[in-house]
Amino acid sequence: MRAVWGYVWAAVRRHRLQSVSVAVICFMGMALTSLAVTVFLRSTSAWEDGFRATNGAHLVMTFDAGVVTRAQVEATASVAGVEALGEVQESVTLPAAQGELHRTIQILGRSDAGGAVGRLNLVDGRWPRSPDEIAVNKVVLDEGRAHFGIGQDVAVATAGGLRLFRAVGQVDDLMAFDSFGSIQRGWVQPAVAAELAAPVARGDAARQWLAPYRVSGDVSDARLVATAAAIGGSLPSGAVAKAPLYWSVSKSSSNWATQAFGAVVYVFMVAALLTVVFLVASIVAGSVLATRRDLGVGKALGLTPAQAVAAVIGQMLVPAALGALAGLPLGLASSAPFLSSSSDTLRVPVPSPVDLPMDVGLYAGMLGLVGLVALGPAVRAAGVPAVVALRDGPGWGGHPSRLAAAVDRLGLPRAVRLGMVDVARRPVRSLLTLGAVAVGLAVLTLALTFAPAAASLAADRASWGGAQDFDVVRAPQATDAEVGAALAARPEIASTLQSATAQLAVRGRAQSIPLTGMRGDAPAFGYRALRGHWFAGPDEAVIAGGTAKDLDLRVGDTVSGTVAGRPFSARVSGIMNDIAGGGLGVRVPWSAFESIVPGAQPNQYQVRLGDAADAKRVIAALNEDDGALLQARPVIWGGYADGFLGILNSLVGGLATAIIVLAAAGVFNVAFLAVMERRREHAILKAVGMSARQFVAMVFSFGLFLTVCAALIGIPLGLWFEDYLLNAVMGSQWGFELPQGSLSPLTGLAIVAGALAVALLGTAIPARRALRVPAAVVLHSE
């Protein structure tokens, strides 16, 4: 063992450049891997810790108070699969305002923040005690500002007019997240909620019961769907007012931004690990060739084949262990901003990124990967007799192949052909290097095409819910005609787009789908179909990408279901991006909506202003003059897409740079090892008259040939990476779809120029070093 360690340590010190390269490669690979795995596995830790501490609800159901009584809902505690039922809360959704902030709020009647199921975390202030007090939760994803705070009045538009509540407490509600984002809620005493809800007619702002359930045993989505169906089946028909809310959905939606960043990091982690595998394998293969004489001397002095294998692997593991040990804390530290983002959202302590078993496993996995990659060349080297290794010198294993012969017949300048033959005579090692460079160029392609694709997504403002200048919500006691008259009286308003939403129940699907009726010129507001066309008649519908995927629908198919027991059917004329709707939904003309929901009136109005109008001034005037009829509010999502995608672009650029550096290091190492293992042949070439320029051309052609071949593979692979990242990873989570990016001539030239720069960087230093060594010195040492 001492002999093996002596050989390993001597080899590491003698081949310092190679050792540093392995250490740097493993450093960067370990940093990216630990970052991605930590974000993926720990990003929901804050939510899960809070969920356990509050005995959170696995399932939250909403019932129509006009169909069932509180006692009937409470009786569902005995349904099979229900472990416990929390306090049944009376609920009504109404427009509300606090200062300049206007939004819809779900008001719940609850006696206190405690209880057996779904306890609330009162993070600031106290629980409401008097009829004019309310506690609110902090809504996130609104550019960091659009949430109700305590200490100010909240004006709620009720059926009897505006009612003021003093916000006395702020609550952390872990189940205030659904597939559409965060839910603004307010809690009052039960008697107050009953007063607010009593006069409200059935509809979107109807009296409802909110019931939180704990489910026994398995709490998978399939089990929760079955339990929700059993609960609904135990009540009269039409009792379930909206789709159940599952704990997994709330957990995912509470930190969707962190998970989106994590998904990007994960894709780059895979690319980084591929690069590490290719580079380490090529370095090991080259190292075995470059140090074959050293290994032959060691075997002649008594190293057994097993010790020789251990020596070669150890020569890689020592720098790999040092590099990975330095990269692990960097990756963990880099994950801290992602984890703190989730914790800040939920108002809970930041979870530690350190998970000792996981971190030890990642470190051991990286070393195991390096050892596994080194095993093949090590076994091959150990099987070569010492006398053969000492006799053959640099030429061992390098007999010309058919590919090398074919390259030699291309008719290129002699120096260039010699450099390309260096690639062909070591096909396995060259292919490994080719793979590493191809991954690097694929990542470069992804980085250069991701930003334009993301910009096109951000520009599709309608899909983010931000195509309008501001929104208006109709008060429950107001009619559509009254709101329309109030808006028409404002000369600054150029146009409006009105809508209302019902729930479409689809056979075979546990959760209902939002069915939105639209009145007005939707395409003029930026709504468009990604595939197909916008609806043109009452028998057509445009569906969201997520709905098309869930129901396996295409343009020309029929989407059907029931709305409050009434049958609905329409032909799919188009499929759209609908990020604001969580990627789900069906949109139809207003005439079709009225036929399925008799007496329906729009309750949401998207407003566009004239060119010179000031949105803030118009919003303030509407709320002051017509506050009893409507609530005007700024667009929440309007600027969020730009900011979020801007951060995402920076993240992609930074990660791509790291992997491109890895690829450049790979070309450098392989070029250096190729020069070192053939230094005797190069010395002979210089002795017979090869000029310095010809020598540089020969070495440069080696890297150039590899890089050009890698570009032919890497650029198409990069376009596939972009499509996978945008659509399969991010798009499937948010319900959007983008066409695969295409390369502009300028972008293509930039990638080719980057590839040439990598080749030049990787071969310039080895060529310069080889030129400085006199041919006589090399031949004498051989």
Automatic annotation (TrEMBL):
Signal peptide stretch: none
Keywords recorded for this protein, A-Z: Cell membrane, Membrane, Transmembrane, Transmembrane helix
Coiled-coil ranges (or none): none
Transmembrane segments: 20-41, 263-289, 309-340, 360-379, 431-451, 651-675, 695-721, 741-762
Cellular location(s): Cell membrane
Membrane topology term: Multi-pass membrane protein
Superkingdom per UniProt: Bacteria
Domain ABC3 transporter permease C-terminal: 267-376, 655-774
InterPro entries: ABC3_permease_C (IPR003838), Macrolide_Exporter_MacB (IPR050250)
Major localization listed first in the record, in broad terms: membrane
The family this protein is said to belong to: Belongs to the ABC-4 integral membrane protein family.
Name of this chain's protein: ABC3 transporter permease C-terminal domain-containing protein
Organism: Sinomonas flava
